[in-house]
Structures are given as C-alpha cells and as structure tokens.
Design a protein that fits this description.
Helix content is about 80%, strand content about 5%. By secondary structure, the chain is mostly helical. It starts with a strand and ends with a helix. Helix 2 packs antiparallel against helix 3. It has a two-stranded antiparallel ribbon. Strand 1 and strand 2 form a beta hairpin.
C-alpha cells in the first residue's frame, strides 16, 4: 500500500509490495539476530516481563499503522527496531538452556534460519491472497478487520503481562490458533472470488 495525505491511498503494485515486504522481513531478522546474539552471550540481561510488554506494544503499533500510517516510508526502520525487541525474548530463552559456546552459536544460527523460513512460509501462505484482494474494494475491510483484531490481541497481551493474570481475550485468541489453517483457507476463497468478480466486471466493461 502507498500513502497520501497521511492515509493509505491504494495498492502500489505486486513488485513494489513484495520487494518492500522482503526488505522488512530481512531487517527484522537482522534486528532480532543482533539482540539474540548479544543477550545469549550474556552481554546484558533484561527480565522477561518488560520484554513481553514491549513485544505486545510493537504489535499494537503495527496494528495502528495498518489502520492509519504512523511511520509511512519508514517501515524498514520500525521493523528493525521491533526485531531488536523480539530478539531480547529469544535471547532469554537460549540463555536459560545453559549451552556451551559452540552449542550456543549453532543454536543461534539454526534459530535465525528457522525464524526466517517461518516468516517466508507465513508470507507465502497469506500475502498472495491479500494481493488479490488489493484489486477490490473489499481489501480495506480486511485490512481494518485484521488491524483491529491484532490491536485488541496486543492490548490484551499487554494487560496480561502487566497484571500477571490471564484474561478471557487472550484465552479466546489462543483457542483460535488451531483454526488458523481454516481462516487462511477462507481468506483464499474470498480473494479468489473477488478477483474473479473483478475480472468479469473488467471484461464486461470493455
């Protein structure tokens, strides 16, 4: 998506979207790799609670950005910053395993490769359908609905971590995880249907 007058104005094209997305994924991976390595090597330590609150806050900021661009054209810098934050949580996990130096290096390398592959897998499963929807008027509703859902989940997660008590929203969201493949399938069906309808209208319009 591209911006105009501090609002999302339209689809920037397939090539632009994919290239921009790959840049964001790459800088996010680089960001979390830096703090993952530094934290796992014991250069600093931050308790898990504030880190998890910051991660939830980063998700909230991303959701707000999806609704209304708050850092337009600077998504790469935001992704790098969020990557640094997420890497802190991963560092604590590796530190608690008490691995020796050689095992730590291999674990970090494997972990980073795994994260990168997982991100690419998620992109491959979801983004093509979103690109199809970008050509229709329905995309705005999907974008807003997804952003609102992510924002509510982030606020619920922040509340849970601050109060150290689970809440009904986080429990409900955790219960929805098992239905993720069905949700992606529904998104694919809607995208294909709207894409086909758009093409039919275009042909009839000619």
């Amino acid at each position: 998506m591209v911006t105009a007058q501090k609002r999302w104005s339209g689809f920037g094209g397939v090539r632009y979207s994919i290239m921009n997305l790959l840049k964001i994924i790459t800088v996010f991976t680089v960001g979390h790799s830096i703090t993952l390595l530094a934290g796992a090597l014991g250069w600093f330590y931050i308790p898990s609670q504030p880190i998890e609150i910051l991660i939830a806050f980063s998700i909230l900021m991303s959701a707000i950005h999806a609704l209304r661009p708050i850092f337009p054209g600077r998504e790469i810098y935001a992704a790098a910053t969020f990557g640094l934050i997420h890497g802190l949580a991963f560092a604590n996990t590796l530190t608690n395993l008490n691995l020796d130096a050689g095992q730590m290096v291999l674990s970090i390398l494997g972990f980073n490769i795994g994260i990168e592959l997982m991100q690419l897998f998620v992109v491959a499963m979801i983004v093509p359908w979103l690109i199809l929807l970008c050509w229709s008027n329905s995309y705005k509703g999907v974008r807003i609905g997804g952003a609102v859902f992510a924002g509510i989940a982030a606020i619920a997660w922040m509340t849970e971590r601050i109060l150290n008590q689970p809440n009904p929203i986080t429990r409900a969201i955790e219960g929805l995880v098992i239905y993720a493949p069905w949700m992606i399938g529904a998104l694919a069906l809607v995208a294909v249907a709207y894409s086909s309808l758009f093409r039919m209208r275009t042909v009839n319009g000619k």
